[in-house]
Amino acid sequence: MAGHSQYKNIMHRKGRQDKMRSKIFSKLSREITVAAKAGIPDPSANSRLRLAIQNARAENLPKDNIERAIKKASGADGANYENIRYEGYGPSGVAVIVEALTDNRARTAPAVRSYFAKFGGNLGETGSVSFMFNKVGEVIYPLNKATADAMMDAAIDAGADDATADGHHSIICTFESMNEVAQALAAKFGEAESVKAIWKPTVMAPITEFEKAETLMKLVDMLEEDDDVQHVFINAEFSDDVAAKLNPPEE
Q1: What is the pTM of this model?
Q2: From 1.50.10.10, 1.10.10.200, 3.40.50.1980, 3.20.20.140, which CATH number describes the 2-72 domain?
Q3: Does residue 181 sit in helix, strand or coil?
Q4: Per-residue pLDDT tens for 1-10?
């Protein structure tokens, strides 16, 4: 979907990834620890841990960090994290889903609420915006792995619903079939860049004014800078000129 692709491209705009690198590493390590603690610390027998490690490698998380995160899961003094989803409306009525991994709800909820309020949004109840999204699985491959037609054919054979090529190959499948689809594609193309569950919007909120888009992205940036926030999803669909201003070409 156009809005989803635009959002991912803007999230990788120049300079932002370097600024977020240490936080990205911290979030990836936390997910590995939680995955290892939820099952067993063996990726071959723990699918969640296997995917967490795969996604960490895609972001170049050092091997030592991965091993430390797994070992941390067996520590007696390790924190107990829980997955929490927050939903609300950002500026311009854009629907926002925030996935957090926290060991302290009393810290995370007020922080998330304050970010929404700062940029003219409102945090709602669970279910207040998720009806405008579908929770699906997404498998990412670099474009040089295959032609668009070859990837589409392989994705359909693997049981996926769709595949697009816009900066990278994005294969969409049901959340329930994500592991099976990823394994089938890995047998043909090797390990994917990432395999994860996403909230894909089914209802879009058009944004045609740069100032409104900029305010929205400031909210997203602030949310993603919070150590407890793992993922942020929005249903904004930026006009071409707004998207270009938000994500100028690298010099």
Answers
A1: 0.88
A2: 1.10.10.200
A3: helix
A4: 334 555 555 5
